[in-house]
């Protein structure tokens, strides 16, 4: 079908994430436009227009509340990794968070065939941090790693490459020759990509970390991403210090092709999993930035800091959702009535007003506000009214579900969450609601981030907290993760009817048809099957020093630090 101008304009809004996991999971809260060759370069950073002057020390100090589990772009899946990887790598395109458009990255220009299936990228003269040229083969190598069906550790975002011709067939071992996959190095500076179907937001996807290139030195070195000395990167910064569990430091990469647009000399990341400590460090001047998406301000302090620092506190609604997910493969959570009973007995507004205190919005669907639909926002057209809070109906559903499972009472179960004072408070409040409404006993289990992610991936849980941040501006980024055996489908959910809805949405560029498929899919996972409990749509609450400029957040709340700079203060 011929693409309309409105279709291209709509998908020009595509943006990359990258926590809450995953897209991405978060540790806490965590077109054919060729763009502008100068990228996101901030204006007048030398103060020439405003009279302000750059600080002599251009070291940005920020906290990560959890250590990124990996720096391998093929294995990354959370916002902590996304934030750091974005400083160290660059894809064929990069996203301009202010315009919402894909622009030139390592590709300085590209051509698209009339049918929208073949993209030919022409690479600029760019170098790796060791001085080697960045070539088209580096992208082929990286994408082959992601799609490797025999990889020791499966890439969670392999499905993001299924847009390539034969990519899914290769991953599913239906074909064994990678040369049949739609990516080809024509020569060192030319990369040809063939898609399985027209994908209007493909240019935006290319700025996502799963599509980053990797250097040839990764071959034969399974542990290359665990040592700063073996990480050869192509982005604005290189990893120069890494003390596990304590600090990370990235330093300006003098071999980066666009180094003149980078004002920071270093970014120091502390690794402190205490919101109180993070706030204290910000107030004492040890941090220039505090809060989401990579850190956390204590929930009880949000009203206070909002009044205390009116010029530094920022709150923004973002396209992210906080939820609890079930392991639907094990009793008793294989029973949908039991799952629905738990979802219906959470008082979301009370939780927001009394516990989170962050101005979030109650969620009764999965796709958050801010995501583009067929005409305007998806959430405006498709209301999130898939269920209601109703203790009486929940009791009836629970009784029916228990009877179906041959139980007289729901056994005590474990609710898992990753280390965070905020997650703990939410879990305590919800466990109390379940106890009061349904007489259920819940055991709370706190886990460190890396362990928590691993347990979820292997379905080693009963009920677990989760969050998802948009990887690009389309409902697909929220809905294709629940297909059977999807890399980020931790619930074990498998429904052929759901899989077909997603496949049908991917096979058409008709916006109305896509939205119809998305609405049916969302209804299936929430109203019909309730594989997860939507709790709230996120807001980002941050504190930013007045002298810190150039930081950008995209519509999903993901932060880009690469073009930040510090003024004299």
Automatic annotation (TrEMBL):
Which is a GO BP term held by this UniProt record?
peptide transport
Q: Where in the cell is the protein located?
A: Cell envelope
Q: GO MF annotations for this entry?
A: peptide transmembrane transporter activity
Residues annotated as signal peptide: 1-22
Keyword Transport in record: yes
Task: List, for all copies, the residue spans of the domain called Solute-binding protein family.
Answer: 104-489
Q: What keywords are annotated for this sequence in UniProt?
A: Peptide transport, Protein transport, Signal, Transport
Give the protein name, as stated in the record.
Oligopeptide transport system substrate-binding protein
Protein's organism: Paenibacillus sophorae
Q: What is the lineage of its organism?
A: Bacteria, Bacillati, Bacillota, Bacilli, Bacillales
């Amino acid at each position: 079908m011929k693409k309309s101008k409105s279709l291209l304009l709509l998908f020009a809004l595509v943006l990359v994430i990258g926590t809450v996991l995953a897209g991405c999971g978060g540790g806490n809260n965590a077109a054919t436009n060729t763009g502008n060759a100068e990228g996101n370069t901030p204006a007048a950073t030398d103060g020439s227009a405003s009279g302000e002057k750059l600080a002599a020390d251009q070291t940005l100090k920020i906290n990560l509340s959890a250590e990124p589990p990996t720096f391998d772009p093929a294995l990354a899946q959370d916002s902590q990794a996304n934030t750091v990887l974005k400083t160290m790598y660059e894809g064929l395109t990069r996203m301009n968070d202010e315009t919402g458009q894909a622009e030139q990255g390592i590709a300085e220009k590209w051509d698209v065939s009339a049918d929208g299936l073949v993209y030919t990228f022409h690479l600029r003269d760019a170098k790796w941090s060791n001085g080697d040229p960045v070539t088209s083969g580096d992208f082929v190598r990286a994408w082959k790693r992601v799609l490797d069906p025999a990889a020791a550790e499966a890439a969670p975002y392999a499905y993001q490459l299924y847009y390539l011709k034969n990519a899914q067939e290769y991953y599913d071992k239906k074909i064994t020759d990678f040369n049949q996959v739609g990516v080809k190095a024509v020569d060192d500076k030319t990369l040809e990509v063939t898609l399985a179907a027209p994908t209007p937001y493909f240019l935006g996807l290319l700025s996502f970390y799963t599509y980053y290139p990797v250097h040839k030195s990764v071959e034969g070195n399974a542990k290359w991403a665990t040592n700063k000395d073996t990480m050869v990167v192509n982005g604005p910064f290189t990893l120069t210090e890494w003390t596990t569990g304590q600090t990370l430091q990235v330093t300006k990469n003098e071999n980066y092709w666009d180094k003149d647009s980078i004002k920071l000399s270093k970014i120091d990341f502390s690794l402190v999993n205490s919101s109180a400590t993070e706030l204290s460090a910000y107030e004492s001047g040890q941090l220039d930035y505090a809060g989401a998406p990579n850190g956390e301000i204590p929930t009880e302090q949000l009203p206070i800091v909002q009044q205390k620092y009116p010029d530094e506190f920022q709150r923004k609604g973002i396209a992210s959702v906080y939820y609890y997910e079930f392991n639907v493969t094990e009793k008793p959570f294989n029973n949908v009535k039991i799952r629905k009973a738990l979802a219906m007995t959470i008082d979301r507004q009370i939780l927001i007003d009394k516990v989170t205190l962050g101005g979030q919005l109650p969620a009764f669907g999965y796709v958050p506000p801010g995501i583009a639909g067929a005409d305007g926002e998806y959430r405006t057209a498709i209301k999130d009214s898939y269920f209601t809070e109703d203790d009486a109906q929940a009791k009836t559903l629970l009784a029916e579900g228990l009877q179906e499972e041959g139980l007289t009472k729901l056994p005590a179960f474990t609710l898992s969450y990753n280390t965070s004072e905020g997650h703990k408070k939410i879990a305590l409040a919800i466990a109390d609601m379940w106890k009061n409404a349904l007489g259920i006993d819940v055991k709370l289990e706190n886990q460190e981030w890396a362990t928590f992610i691993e347990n979820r991936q292997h379905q080693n849980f009963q009920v677990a907290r989760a969050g998802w941040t948009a990887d690009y501006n389309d409902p697909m980024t929220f809905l294709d993760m629940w297909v059977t055996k999807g890399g980020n489908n931790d619930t074990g959910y498998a429904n052929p009817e759901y899989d077909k809805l997603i496949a049908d949405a991917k096979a058409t560029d008709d916006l109305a048809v896509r939205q119809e498929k998305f609405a049916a899919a969302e209804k299936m996972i929430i109203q019909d099957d309730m594989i997860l409990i939507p709790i709230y749509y996120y807001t980002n609450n941050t504190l930013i020093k007045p002298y810190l400029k150039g930081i950008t957040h995209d519509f999903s709340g993901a932060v880009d630090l690469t073009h930040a700079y510090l003024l004299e203060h």
